[in-house]
Amino acid sequence: MDDDFEERRRDGYVLTGDRSRLSLETVTRWLLDEAYWTAGRSEADVARSFAESHPYGVLDATGATVACARMITDGVTFGWICDVFVDAGHRGRGLGTWMVEGVVDHWAARGVRRMMLGTRDAHEVYARVGFTPLAHPERMMHLDRRPQF
Asked: What is the pTM of this model?
């Protein structure tokens, strides 16, 4: 749990950093069955990745998990926001933007000055929070050992 994450409420939804309130079963189903970026992950991979990072989620009025995201960070200089997912039945309500904005605000207040994420098709969602394309992508490199499907 992110002990100092201040929950946010909006239109019957709650944004929380309390991992005990999130349904890992629901998140695992989304990531393994619906997310394009998680090909090759196993249930154990999802569980371990959430255990080793700072998970966030949006809960509806019944307490069901309807969106999730993770922050991987050193807590000082850099953070990677990933596994952002909003359940299909709750899309179009601005929950993804609201959730990522809450995560960004929280870590920025703690002094994290640089945050990144990757997306294939949600650039405008993240632009609303302030994300921009890399100014110098030629300076960035990566190593990708995921299975290629």
From this structure: 0.93
